[in-house]
């Protein structure tokens, strides 16, 4: 049995009041015409009907007009006044007794919060959970805020606010339940795909849905393979597989993420397309490249590296859950065997870990120097195309540290990436193919996605070979 939290001492009597509005006594036969033409001008108030019967009069009904007009008939739009005059419809004042149930969340919060406190206008929803980020001025009123949003929001059973910053290795945040049930496991629907998630154990951000859509549509092509280094519970990985039939190597260090990733792979029937891992990001990246030398995989019959149309995936006979689960290694295993050669050459590296992802780029320094050339270097490459053409596109995320426009942000990230790659030649801004401002996270910080192809001098860097060259130059 889940425990219900109710810390609010909300006095609902403070919301009771009387208001006066205008109403139109409209003949029954004209009501439909009136509503079609002036629907936007009718009263919109929770738990209040804007068409009401008139006692002892079955020939007409009262249509209540929006409270913004007050009791001033001159404030009504000209076309409405003309209609009323032509149809000889009478306007009269009506008094309404309203209370808490008749108010929107914003109107109720206006009654509760002091005028100098900003009224919260929304929240991030994760299934049945409303996740808020209340500021310091709002915190003294947090339980009333939580109760109001619980009462006024359809489908919400739990309201919580984040406390502090995400500072732990697994990117989970501390929170306090303000109202509702202490239930943190839920199901989130994103673009028609369902994800099981427990926000007390794993990281989830619904606001990144649009960004995931952008990357999938703008960069992922049929036949691509994606290396998702910090996949969480798999929103990008599973969506790419489900929507485009793309194969994905999906990894997260958090064992709870690994658990929910596997669970979401099974329930979305993409076990043939998404391989789950639970490893350190750097080790995972190196492992995926080193697998190009795995003879067991190389000797398997090579499958064509092409996508499966998402519509045809839906038409296939849905396998039973046990059949999908059988395709996964036991959950105690952290390394999933590669299934065939089509997984060996990945075309994209997705690094959505904004706090640290740029620093994790060092995982790719020299990692390709011992990679299987049959997998990573095109023998049939056209003239003028170097071997680096087959290297993956990197999509790395990061936060700016001050208020910067796109040009300054590009310079900022170029310097950060150059610092990571300094031992193998650095990095220049002309290598960036796309820089996208995903969202502003505060008044002084924005989240960007930087896309570039992994430089050949980084991928094939060999410190021993460089040392020999330097020694020869000194001679």
Automatic annotation (TrEMBL):
The organism of origin for this protein: Euplotes crassus
Lineage: Eukaryota, Sar, Alveolata, Ciliophora, Intramacronucleata
Name of the protein: tRNA (guanine(37)-N1)-methyltransferase
Annotated spans, Disordered: 298-323
Principal place of residence: mitochondrion
Catalyzed reaction equations: guanosine(37) in tRNA + S-adenosyl-L-methionine = N(1)-methylguanosine(37) in tRNA + S-adenosyl-L-homocysteine + H(+)
The protein's assembly and partners: Monomer.
InterPro entries noted in UniProt: MeTrfase_TRM5/TYW2 (IPR030382), SAM-dependent_MTases_sf (IPR029063), TRM5-TYW2-like_MTfase (IPR056743), TRM5/TYW2-like_N (IPR056744), tRNA_Gua_MeTrfase_euk (IPR025792)
One Gene Ontology biological process: tRNA N1-guanine methylation
